Amino acid sequence: MNRNFIPICLFVVISIPFYSCNKCCGVATPQGNWVELSKESNSVSPSGAVCFVIGSNAFISFANDSAGNYQNETWMFTPSSQNGGAWFQVSGFPGSVRNFAVAFSASNKGYIGSGYNGTNALSDFWQYDPSINTWTRISDFPGNARYGAIAFGIGNYGYFMTGTDGTNYFNDLWKYDPTGNSWLSLGDYPGIAKSGAISFVYNNRGYIVTGIGAGGKLDNAFYSFDPSQQGSAAWTSLRPVSNVSPETYDDGYTSIVRSNGVGFVMLNTNSNGEGDRAYITTGIGEGSFNNTTWEYDFADSLWTKKTSYERAPRVEAIGFSVQNLGFVGLGSNGTTTFYSNIDEWFPDEPYNSKD
Asked: How many domains does the chain have?
């Protein structure tokens, strides 16, 4: 299958598991296919980009390019079955240069904040309103400035947690209320303080998995967060994502843990039994890059290994789902090589090396 990727540049306008041990953790030949949408020879190759989704559109703000220049461009991507998708440039992110920032959407607006500017961790946040194509600075995050955090939107609120300032790791959780332009501390996440975790949202719950803590230790913890509950009742500890149980379901859990990977959710998938699934891929595993792709089944809380991300290994990539289509791309090798490709993920299709 091919989806041709046609960028259009205009002058102005751019997520209660049921536990079962009957399912195997992987298959002999992983299923799923990555189809490259874009790789423009003259395009900017950004690393440290962030992405949020509003309605049927994804919004991507760039960071540093391969020449070391800051790219404050923001683009709106609208998928299409006819031509892969269309790109429209919108108002550029007005904040300062940064990497390892976070992005989320709430109440039909997008938010970008925190990060690292090469010298200091940051605490400023900005709101993008697509209805008027305008960025507005909102209240700064009142906790410790940080980068490598995670953020997600549920309902009308944003949630921001974990991260590091380069010396300390954090496990605090905060809620942002757009109506009052205010931040509220919700206490601590029950797992370890860490950065580079992966989050996704399903059925009004946030899911937080893996990451890296003090001493460079990768974390195998997996939690869900229910904002309708208070205090410790909001958190549910799910099965760890490494082989730690005496049962057989996790015998193949050899490469789920990582830092600085990406995650997204797709509904009504058909392979390996029908259902709603989350996917994680890219990042850094135990001492090396980790391109393996893993599928999480919300129905039975088990993971299945799928076709690895086919392009160059990378960190600081973006991963998102929009119109129930999954996409991964951009990023760098952590040093001087930056990538411009974006791939669409087809979880129910067989692997095709020619895509």
From this structure: 1
